[in-house]
Design a protein that fits this description.
There is one protein chain. This protein has helices at 3-13, 19-22, 46-51, 58-69, 95-112, 122-129, 136-139, 158-162, 167-184; strands at 37-41, 78-81, 116-120, 144-146, 149-154. By secondary structure, it is an alpha/beta fold. The chain has a 5-stranded mixed sheet with strand order 2-1-3-5-4, sandwiched between helices. A hairpin with a 2-residue loop joins strand 4 (144-146) and strand 5. The model has no long low-confidence stretch (mean pLDDT 96).
């Protein structure tokens, strides 16, 4: 068993915070252990909680389309969340819930050692960059170097499901991601 598999097993039985009490199942993440790109969202939604896989609902379908537009295949990237269990009513995770999952997330990053970490949405960006003053709208699709890691903040795909005016900015961020990847190839 790999260390990444061991972390997934720990996530599935984790009871470090109250979210464990309301989950159907934890959602450790999915993708190859040697992925060069990692996507980190906020927390699982209802579909993810039911299936135990990240980004399988409507936001996941949109993410798949956006990945294709950036010339990426979902099977080549690792996808996870800052919180591994669904918050009630899809509310934002509380700071203590994020802290409870942080060891799992940091372990996944250490195992995979991605060359690029794409944060999906404000919450994931603030968590990973440890700066709540940053705006995902301003940083969408840009490169940020922190703590020896390379981040690309992106607007969360679900934002386009809730607000049609967000579709273009979301697509612009993923277009810039695709351009960045082509430049680095």
């Amino acid at each position: 068993m790999s260390l990444l598999d061991a972390i997934a097993d720990q996530v599935r039985v984790c009871t470090r915070c109250p979210l464990a009490e309301g989950r159907t199942q934890a959602v450790p993440g999915a993708g190859p252990p040697d992925a060069s790109i990692m996507f980190i969202g906020e927390a699982p939604g209802a579909e993810e909680d039911a299936q135990g896989e990240p980004f399988v609902g409507k936001a996941g379908q949109m993410l798949n389309r956006l990945l294709r537009g950036a010339e990426l295949d979902r099977t080549d990237v690792f996808i996870t969340n800052t919180c591994k269990c669904r918050p009630p009513s899809n509310r934002d995770p509380h700071a203590d819930e994020v802290r409870a999952c942080r060891e799992h997330l940091d372990g996944q990053i250490a195992c995979i050692r991605p060359t690029l970490i794409c944060t999906l949405g404000r919450w994931a960006m603030h968590t990973m960059l440890e700066d709540e003053t940053l705006s995902v709208m301003k940083l969408n699709g840009t490169v940020i170097e922190r703590q020896g890691l390379t981040f690309v903040p992106l607007i969360h795909p679900a934002a386009g499901l809730h607000n049609e005016n967000m579709q273009q900015p979301i697509e612009d961020g993923f277009r810039r991601l695709g351009e960045l990847l082509r430049e680095r190839a």
